[in-house]
Amino acid sequence: MGDLSQSGAPHVQHIDHYSRATKAAIVVQALLREGQTPPLARLPEDVQVRLTHEISNLRLVDRATMNAVVSEFIAELEGLGLAAPADMEGTLASVAQHLSPGAAARLRSEAAARVGSDPWAQIRQMKPDELAAPLSRESIEIAAVILSRLPVNRAAEALSRIPGERARRVALAFSRANHVSPLALHRIGQAIVRDYCAIEAPAFDRPPDQRVGAILNASTQRTRDTVLEGLGEDDPAFADQVRRAIFTYAHIPTRLYPQDVPKILRKIDPPDLATVIAATQGQETDDGATTAYLLANIPQRLGDTLREEAAAMDRPRRADVEKAMGVIVATLREAADQGEVNLMNTAPDDEA
After folding, report:
1. 3-class secondary structure for 281-326?
2. Which of 143, 225, 230, 219 lies closest to 180, judged by CA?
3. Closest CA to 289 of 299, 279, 298, 280
4. Which residues form the Flagellar motor switch protein FliG middle domain (predicted)?
5. Quick check: 343 and 255 in contact, CB under 8 A?
């Protein structure tokens, strides 16, 4: 910006009588004079309006004053440690994934009702499937206004979610959307946000297939098979989702990395391990393969000790074996949830 930041400016006291709004107007005008393009459109509309009024009231500003204001502005920028989003919409976009569903929903509702907020910022964050609701339920003209305010790619995706005949009528209404006043546009945005963005927090933190899968993980094999058989008859698609969510003892070799086996087994009581080993070691079954996998990936001395304990046991009851397997799986899932181990991803067509 040439000589705008030179140190030959007067003392700060020379500009103390200027308001911060006036100083902002001077900085923006100086940037524009230098051919810069400050992103004013990213500011809230009321701030844009006030700033424009301030610029129109500047009239003439001498070079010394301009240099002093710009120097003060640069000094403040250099002293900044961090800059947070300027509005609730931006803040939510950056932290929503770290909040509980209830807190995120509450904040979205508050933002939707806040006077002076930009409703279209929230609407632009809606997913195409979410946008399909107002595009299908509102009038053709309102749907055209909504699409006109979206980025091109998002608008195209949203348009593809509604029936072809309605999509054609919405496209024809674009010419009428040009005559909407800024005030009407703001009110339309507020209504859409109020009706479609202020979504209540879900009652459950996991989808139904994962909740059923977690319950069946802790159930006996007989119960698990019976429930899955019944689900398969009543709702095959949901039954398939539940099967993918189930994580049993037999799935461990496809989910637990070899290097993490000792870390998990150290958390489990030796009697539980011995019970499972006594019941499955040497079997040509999925459970037998899992036991072989676990024993192959722990120190040999520990493995020999567990084998000796298992050999000294009477043959355990199936109920005791399933309980011990449940303990192993629950311990593994808890460690994964707490980030102590990472699980291997399974292919979409796997049953794990």
Report:
1. CCCCCHHHHHHHHHHHCCCHHHHHHHHHHHHCCCCCCHHHHHHHHH
2. 143
3. 280
4. 128-194
5. yes
Distance in Å from the first CA to the final CA of the chain = 61
For the segment 21-47, what is each residue's pLDDT rounded down to a tens digit?
999 999 999 999 889 888 888 787 788
**Which of the two residues, 104 and 160, has the higher pLDDT score?**
160
Sequence-distant (≥ 6) Cβ neighbours of residue 87 within 8 angstroms: 44, 117, 118, 121
Distance CA(175)–CA(48), nearest Å, equals 27
Q: What is the DSSP string of 127-152?
A: -HHHHHHHHHHS-HHHHHHHHHTS-H
Q: Record the tokens describing residue 317, joined without a space.
A: 């009851």
User: To the nearest whole percent, how much of the chain has pLDDT over 90?
Assistant: 33
Angstrom CA distances, 97 to 103, 113, 277, stand at 11, 21, 42
pLDDT at 352 over 50: no
Quick one: which of 30, 98, 351 has its CA closest to 216?
A: 351
Least confident stretch, 21-25, 158-162, 235-239, 344-348: 344-348
Q: Are 29 and 57 in contact (CB under 8 A)?
A: no
**Could you tell me the pLDDT band of residue 348, with boundaries at 50, 70 and 90?**
very low
**Tokens 């009407």, located at residue:** 184
